[in-house]
Amino acid sequence: EPVFNRISRLLDYDEDHIIALGKDGFVKFRKDDFDAVAIFSNPGSSYADNVIVTKNSDIWYISESKDDCHIITLGGRLREINRYSLGKDVHVTGICEDVSQVVWLATDKGLICFDSRSGSRIPTPGALKDLGKNGKIHFAIPFWSNSILFGVQGEGLLSYNVITGNIDRIVKEQTLEGNKYVCFVDKGNNIWLSDGKSEPKTYMGRRPY
């Protein structure tokens, strides 16, 4: 059996399995006995910062190198089923999927969208086409039931409703002027935000911003 050391991340795949990102690739384990049932060997992929499990139970992750940046899709058996080149000058800062099964990529070139069912690239909504042009998009995270939370340098926290197309700036005192932020939204839609230098700040999900 292969040994996967330096596990950098665990993904909750479904009620019976987890995905471990090890030093040489991805491993799918059963939760009850921790037996490996599938392996995707790809040295370096374990350090992918941007990886999600979609509603189709596919794994989408970003692979960046000096020559190109790809978004790669793996099926449930951890076999590559799609690969899309984003270009060598693109750097991805965040990835998430919304309720309509659109995968959102936050990049230093703006937002890029894909249909997670077909794997094809789709147009970015007109209201968001200029997002990131005046400042880096730090992250993109599911927020509430129908929304995505974007963190944009100089603009702050923006909530975009994928159903209505409305954009609201929330936590108006927070402008995200720094170079890097880490954000987490918990089950209560509370926002946990850190610049990696100071204590995290918490913004209550039901607060009237």
Tell me about this structure.
This protein is mainly β and 209 residues long. Helices cover 0% and strands 46% of the residues. It is built from no helices and 19 strands. The protein has strands at 9-12, 17-22, 25-30, 36-41, 51-53, 59-64, 69-74, 80-85, 92-97, 102-107, 110-115, 121-122, 137-143, 147-152, 156-161, 167-170, 182-185, 191-194, 201-203.
List keywords for this structure.
4-stranded antiparallel sheet; 209 residues; mainly beta; globular; 46% strand
Strand order of the largest sheet: 1-2-3-4
Largest sheet: 4 strands, antiparallel
Report the order of strands and helices: EEEEEEEEEEEEEEEEEEE
Mean pLDDT: 89
Question: What is the CA-based Rg, rounded?
Answer: 17 Å
Helix and strand content put the structural class at: mainly beta
- Give the terminus-to-terminus CA distance: 53 Å
Q: Which shape, going by the Cα principal axes?
A: globular
User: Which stretches are poorly predicted, pLDDT < 50 over at least 5 residues?
Assistant: none
- Strand residue content: over 45%
Total helices: the number is 0
The level of helicity is: under 10%
Number of strands: 19
Short description:
Helix content is 0%, strand content 46%. The chain has no helices and 19 strands.
Give the secondary structure arrangement, pairings included.
Layout: E1 9-12, E2 17-22, E3 25-30, E4 36-41, E5 51-53, E6 59-64, E7 69-74, E8 80-85, E9 92-97, E10 102-107, E11 110-115, E12 121-122, E13 137-143, E14 147-152, E15 156-161, E16 167-170, E17 182-185, E18 191-194, E19 201-203
Antiparallel strand pairs: 1-2, 2-3, 3-4, 5-6, 6-7, 7-8, 9-10, 10-11, 11-12, 13-14, 14-15, 15-16, 17-18, 18-19
